[in-house]
Amino acid sequence: MNHLKNETSPYLLQHADNPVDWYPWCNDAFERARNEDKPVFLSIGYSTCHWCPVMERESFENADTAELLNKSFISVKVDREERPDIDSVYMSVCQALTGSGGWPMSIFMTWDKKPFFAGTYFPPRSCYGMPGFSDVLNAIVQQWSTERGRLLKSAEHITQRLKEFAAVSPASSDDNLIEAAVNTLRKSFDIEFGGFGQAPKFPMPHNLLFLMYYSTVSKDSSAMKMVEKTLTQMRKGGIFDQIGGGFSRYSTDRYFLVPHFEKMLYDNALLIMAYSAAYSLTQNRIYLDTAVRTADYILREMTSPEGGFYCAQDADSEGVEGKYYTFTLDEIMTVLGDNGQRFAEIFDITEHGNFEGTNIPNLLESNELPSGFDDELQKLYEYRRSRTELRLDDKMLLSWNAMMCAAMSMLYRVTQDRKYLRSAERARKFIERNMSDGANLFASYRSGRHSGQAFLDDYAYYIAALIELYNSTLDSRYTKLAEGFCNEAVSRFADGNGGFSMCESTELFMNPKELYDGAVPSGNSVMTYDFIRLYQLTGKDIYREYAEKQIDFMTVNAQDYPAGNCMFLLAKLMYEVPLSHITVAVKGTDDLSEIRLPFLANVSARQTNEQYPLLNDRTTYYVCRGNMCLPPAN
After folding, report:
1. DSSP label at 446?
2. To the nearest whole number, what is the mean pLDDT of the chain?
3. 3-class DSSP state for residue 31?
């Protein structure tokens, strides 16, 4: 009997009709494994993962494989996006045992959750040096029967070593982390095509945000040149959806031409922030255009009627990766008629194609963004929606929703278009109604049900979103809420050894503490940022104390690879070289919503008084930078 039919996760529901007797992660599964004296097979993935449905089709829908799993194992399926704690712990196991990791992740363990074998995707039969999944299952059945003592000893050894490794604190160092990170990024920068390293290339917008702030405070123009080359190349490439807007997960080549076509909410949120920041610094309209088109895509396709943001869109359509996004030259000519040839020349559409015989629209050979194609882009957008469709992961994750809420708020400050601020405020209200009961947050929501817990990232990103909403509105309600959730995060997740654990409590053999930035900044990095911004906005010493303690902890732990901690280093740099502080003096009748606020500053609004008199009887700005204050202005 498959036990997934009552779950809300789209990924779990995709497996609800498998002949495998799947359980969600629950006590019943592990208790049954203990009672029936069976090992546990844990399979972790997510709905827009390319190889997850491949393994499902090849193995989990196969009657013979399902029979073997049902006879000799208790099988547990986990959505990594709903349970990042489980994913983090067992990913560390997979990396320790195999030297790499990925999804689908396959873990074999005892009923007390101690792993003894790990891998990722297994083909149905042995090929190319990879063992077949059925061969792996049979080998484990054999060893469970005849060499169980060795397996149990191995499980104890693995868990003990991982716990010991997590408890080790690096030696302190006086190295300049910020310069070291910049130098590492500079060495790996692709001068010709932008981005860092060769292929695949991931956007990593938090690295770009760090470089932008570093360039501003250090007057190092070379750092900004790396940012601009990367942002421009991504905008022109196929990683950006030239037809409908928004970014795919990563580029499979060094040119940013051919992406892995899935679109994730978090990538697009962080990229809206990066492009908005770049526009605020350069006034180059390519960055504003990119941020706006990405945000408009989110509002059109990734926003629920209630204002929450969906997780992702799949890379595959009708079983073919990228089919939704690609066109033949004949299709372009048929849809656009007389204008087709000019469009094809500009967007690199040819008869032989640039991707597996078909075409990914791109502007890599163009010197600037073309104009005058609005009608053609709309026709192609409508055509491809009628031609095929994308699978949507429509669950909402609090941390990703908070990220997009912050991004929309930041975009509002560079566009002054209130639809982006309204979107941010609606998302915040959605979170308040559906993923919070006041002090408690809940990590995910779908079909009227929320999860039973939240993680460090949920609190950290939500605090950051509230800070950004304050920065866009000067509404003190948001800083008060941010302070409340900040205090909750400290109470729930602070570790006595420094930093913050992912979980308030855990049933796993270790409570993960993620420090490095991956596809998204770590919760520990974002908490550093939160403390610093709250201190600079409120002036309360408690947040300065939290910030300094967290900076000390993160500094020690960032020594071995500073470039993997760019969000923390951005926060550290903001502490060392603070943002301008702007006090806005207003009359009691002034409408704060009419005040144009800077993209990045510490701003407070005050009723006019003797200390902050009005200039010319109008709203007046008092700007201080470092230890110097400028004359009042309006």
Report:
1. E
2. 94
3. helix
| 604 DSSP β-pair partners | 583
Q: How many CB atoms sit inside 10 A of residue 186's CB?
A: 16
pLDDT in tens, 512-546: 999 999 999 999 999 999 999 999 999 999 999 99
Tell me: pLDDT of 50 over 90: no
| Domain-located, residue 2 | no
**CATH code, domain with 14:** 3.40.30.10
Six-digit token string for 284? 């180059």
Please indicate, yes or no, whether residues 32 and 100 belong to a single structural domain of this protein.
yes
With respect to residue 66, please indicate whether it lies within any of the assigned structural domains. Answer: yes
Same domain, 262 and 374: no
> What is the model's pLDDT at position 169?
65
What number is the average pLDDT over the span 502-519? 94
Does the predicted model carry a pTM greater than 0.70? Answer: yes
Q: Which of 482, 467, 472 is nearest to 411 (CA)?
A: 472
d(CA 459, CA 524): 11
Are 75 and 19 within 8 A, CB to CB? no
Instruction: Write the single-letter amino acid at 388.
Output: T
For residue 473, count CB atoms less than 10 angstroms from its CB and return exposed for 0-12, middle for 13-18, buried for 19 or more: buried
Q: Among 149, 167, 185, where does a domain finish?
A: 167
Per-residue pLDDT tens digits for 385-438 = 999 889 999 999 999 999 999 999 999 999 999 999 999 999 999 999 999 998
Can you tell me the distance from the alpha carbon of 452 to that of 450, in angstroms, rounded to the nearest whole number? 7
The domain that holds 572 is classified in CATH as: 1.50.10.10
Same domain, yes or no: 182 and 109: no
- Domain of 588 in residue numbering reads as 581-629
| One domain for residues 351 and 449 | no
Paired with 24 in beta bridges are 77
What's the CA gap between 373 and 173, in Å, rounded? 55
Specify if 172 maps to a domain: no
Residues in the chain: 634
Which tokens sit at 10? 């789209």
Cα(65)–Cα(55) distance, integer angstroms: 11
Q: pLDDT-derived band of residue 168, with 50, 70 and 90 as boundaries?
A: low
Q: What is the pLDDT of residues 551-593, one digit of tens each?
A: 999 999 999 999 999 999 999 999 999 988 888 888 776 667 7
621 pLDDT band, cuts 50/70/90, is: confident
User: What is the widest separation between alpha-carbon atoms in the chain?
Assistant: 89
Same domain for 568 and 593? no
For residue 596, tell me if it sits in a domain.
yes
Looking at the structure of the chain, the number of domains it has is 4
Sign of CA dihedral 455, 456, 459, 460: negative
d(C-alpha 312, C-alpha 197), whole Å: 26
pLDDT at residue 316 in the model = 87
110 with 38, same domain: the answer is: yes
Single residue among 390, 407, 436 that ends a domain in this structure:
390
Smallest CA-to-CA distance from 98 within 74, 78, 76, 115 is with 115
- Among 179-183, 188-192, 607-611, the range scoring the smallest mean pLDDT is 607-611
Same domain, 589 and 572: no
